[in-house]
Amino acid sequence: MDRTLILVRHGRAERAQPGMTDADRSLTPDGQAALAAPDGFARSFSLLGAEERAAAVIWTSPALRARQTAEAVVAAIGERPVTPLPSLFEQDEEVFLDALRASDAPCVIAVGHIPFMERVAERLCGAELSFSPGAVACIRLDFCPDPFASDLLWFVQGPNT
C-alpha cells in the first residue's frame, strides 16, 4: 500500500515579544490571509488526490502558529480532527518517524517548523528543500529498506505574504 506524507511548514508568524514563549507565537494576520487565499493552501492541496484528501490525518506541533496553520489545512481539505504531536515542536526526528511507522493512515499531513521539515524531507527522499512559511512537500513513503527510500512527488513554496 502506498502511503503519503505531507510536510507543511507553519505560516508566517509574529516575532517573539518579551515574556512570550516560542510556543505562544501566533500567525500574523497577513500570514493567516496568505494561507486562506486562492494561491495559498487551496492551490497547494489541490495537488492531493481525492482519496488521499479523504483519508488524510493531520498531526501538528502544539505551538500556536502550527495549530493555526493546521486549521488552515482543515479549511482547504475538509473537516477532521487535528492531533498534537509534541515531537513536531521538539524536532525529534526519531520519535516522529516511529509514530509515522506505527500509523496505519494512508496519508499523514504533518504541520511543523524548520529546520525539522527540511531535515525530514532530506532524510526520507534526499531532497534538499528550503521551506518558506506555508511550504508543502508531498512524499511517497517507502519504509523498506530503512533508512527510507521515499520519493518526493511535489513541492510548493509557501504563499507570498
Quick structural overview:
This protein is of the alpha/beta class.
Give a description of the structure:
This protein is an alpha/beta fold and 161 residues long. It has helices at 29-36, 41-45, 50-55, 64-77, 86-90, 93-102, 116-125; strands spanning 3-9, 56-60, 82-84, 107-112, 136-141, 151-156. A 6-stranded mixed β-sheet has the order 3-2-4-1-5-6, with helices on both faces. It is globular and about 45 Å long. The mean pLDDT is 93.
The pLDDT mean sits at: 93
* Beta-strand content: 15-25%
Distance from first to last alpha carbon = 38 Å
Sheet with the most strands?
Answer: 6 strands, mixed
- Per DSSP E runs of 2 or more residues, the count of β-strands stands at 6
What is the SS-derived class? alpha/beta
Q: N-to-C SSE series?
A: EHHHEHEHHEHEE
Spatial extent as radius of gyration: 15 Å
Side-by-side strand order of the widest sheet: 3-2-4-1-5-6
List the total number of helices: 7
Report the helical percentage: 25-40%
Low-pLDDT ranges: none
Outline type: globular
Based on the model shown, name its key terms:
161 residues; alpha/beta; six-stranded mixed sheet; 7 helices; 6 strands; globular
Topology:
Elements: E1 3-9, H1 29-36, H2 41-45, H3 50-55, E2 56-60, H4 64-77, E3 82-84, H5 86-90, H6 93-102, E4 107-112, H7 116-125, E5 136-141, E6 151-156
Parallel strand pairs: 1-4, 2-3, 2-4
Antiparallel strand pairs: 1-5, 5-6
